[in-house]
Amino acid sequence: MRNNKLGTFGGVFTPSLLTILGVIMYLRFGWVVGNVGLGGTMLIVTLSTSITFLTSLSIASIATNTQVKTGGAYYMISRSLGLEIGGALGIPLYLAQTFSVALYVMGFSESVIALFPSLNIKVVGILTTLLLGSLAFFSTKATIKAQYVILSVIALSIVSLIFGKPVENGELGLLEVTSPEKVGFWKVFAVFFPAVTGIMAGVNMSGDLKDASRSIPLGTFLAVGTGYVIYMLLPVILWRRADPSLLISDPLIMRRIAYWGGAIVMGVWGASLSSATGSLLGAPRVLQALTRDNVVPRRFAVLAQSYGSENIPRGSTVLTVIITLVCVVLGDLNTIAPVLTMFFLATYGILNFTAGIERFLKNPSFRPKFKVHWGFSLIGAIGCIVVMFLIHVVATLLAMVVIFGVLGWLRRRRLKTTWGDVRNGVLLQLVRFILLRIKWMEDPKSWRPNILVFSGAPVKRWHLIDFANGLAQEKGLFTVATILPEVSVTQDKIYQFEKQIRDYLTEKNIRSLVRVVRAENPFIGARQLSNAYGLGPVVPNTILLGDTTDESHHEPYAQMILHFYNSRKNVIILRDEQPLTSRTSLNVDLWWGGLKGNGGLMMVLAYMMQNSPHWQDVKVVIKMVVTSEKAAIEAERNLDNLLSSIRVSFGRKILVGKREDFFSLLTADSQNADLVMLGLKSPDSEFAKYFNDLKAKTASIPRRLFVMASHDIAFKEILK
């Protein structure tokens, strides 16, 4: 099987060089020289080739680090930046290459019709597509051999141009030659740059190469270097043999200059057909790799199959030919051509970024034989972005919309891979940078709950996870913690349990950390985890847990609460005996005992609920019991001033009654509330008895949130 694969010259150098020496060289290079002169043209060629060369360095670095299989640039990106980003670029890259086949075929057809007007342009285009498609369908080697013929024709045209003669205005047979208006440097740069972007033609043959890690770097460098020499030689010939006005006015000025003009026409045809062939070989292989990775859904599995001794992706080739035929029949694709160029440039930019970030992070797994400083790759990535905007701003924005649209679609599908990628390394570096700069002391102005949820099995106490998720809502952190008995669960099972919980939460669209530990019993385990869990200054500041109904657990439960409190952590206990059926409208009663301590934390939590998209239309009412009408008037005034100063839209209600009637008033007034918030006293040796009495006195309230604020958190400062 290995003997049927391609080497460096046929598999990389030839398709890459033929795509570089394309139609722009024949039909637009004279226009470039006429507009910016000899020095300007050489500068444009050098700048353009520099970006391509930097991208080639990045490609060489990635290709020599790992085996590059079918898919070329898509394979490299997906294995480094992840399947979603690889697919987001791979799908547009496939379409760009397929539409490029149609563009090159249509360009070829137009040049044929110019010489033979009696022919039908669509018929020529269809026959050309079928001929090239047949070559690609039956034999990759035959297609490559056809490219050798085309390469010879292009070489003949260049030799004919070298031995040509100067051209005067009168030789064109024109009645009058006007001085056309010249355009600026960067517009000319934008027209020329696509001429040097043919390196993907060789990279996309990665799966057909005998030794991709050797052939891709070597063949790409040779193609870029050869293209640069030719593009630096041609402007000297053009500048010396034709007037700038002629260079700008006549797209086929090379035909006039060449020793044999027919060689230039054959070169134009060869350039069109070679570029079409390169894209027709590369596009199906990208589609094949996308299908094998399940980026393209599994029902199209036929697109992933290879056939024959040359492993030709015939299913993908047929689909590519069909799309090309449709485009050829429908007609002009010039309106989307700039967008296609943007897809190629975006791919180059991401390849540079991939190599740069891998080298910068110095991951142990990234050990390329061809080493490139990350700064060169970064310059290449920036250059690609700048050129994209220089060529066509609107096309750049449209390409970005398409790429991010595909990325969003792939993220929703939650594709799974069997390989790792560099993203965790990037995130780890960001986390390290941030952790070392976070203040160790709590800052009231930036306080958010970092919640440790003792939920046990998520299915059993889902209401705890749901409540924590509502408070966090992508702004704060929370961890779902489970304590397992060490007698019956071995340590090697912990990872499996954590993965099951993570998968379950992912299915529920919950973004949470997960921690599973073993302990003698749940209370000891919770205390140990609260002591040890966290990283640097990022440690849980709030504990959320449910209640216990087992009488034998009351005392250890109370001791656990005391431990949390002494560890300077807020404690929230949620009793939810009647889960909410809807989040559309939520009435919250907050029983108030003052802003200090529990009152401040309860107001912060209520405000976060009111502003969380997890719940809709949350109405918070602060309720307070006083012993006289006079005290009620004073309390109303104080609460109105407080609510105005802290800028929250809470209601308030003052009840008059005896202190001993507090729980009867609470029960009667909050019977229909969706959630009742109550403060807890600081724990002591009698806390178990106190908490059981509190639960008994509020037993008729189905949903209660008991709140105990840590004594060193200045929630009053948060509400200022």
Automatic annotation (TrEMBL):
Record-level Gene Ontology MF annotations: chloride:monoatomic cation symporter activity
InterPro entries reported in the protein's UniProt record: AA-permease/SLC12A_dom, SLC12_C, SLC12A_fam
Domain Amino acid permease/ SLC12A: 12-448
Compartment(s): Membrane
Top-level taxon in the UniProt lineage: Bacteria
Domain SLC12A transporter C-terminal: 462-580
A cellular-component GO term for this protein: membrane
Listed name of the protein: Amino acid transporter
Pfam families reported in the protein's UniProt record: AA_permease, SLC12
Gene3D superfamilies: Amino acid/polyamine transporter I
Organism: Thermophagus xiamenensis
Keywords of the record: Membrane, Transmembrane, Transmembrane helix
Keyword Cell membrane: no
Membrane-traversing stretches: 12-31, 43-64, 85-107, 119-139, 146-164, 184-203, 215-237, 257-282, 315-333, 339-357, 378-410
Membrane topology summary: Multi-pass membrane protein
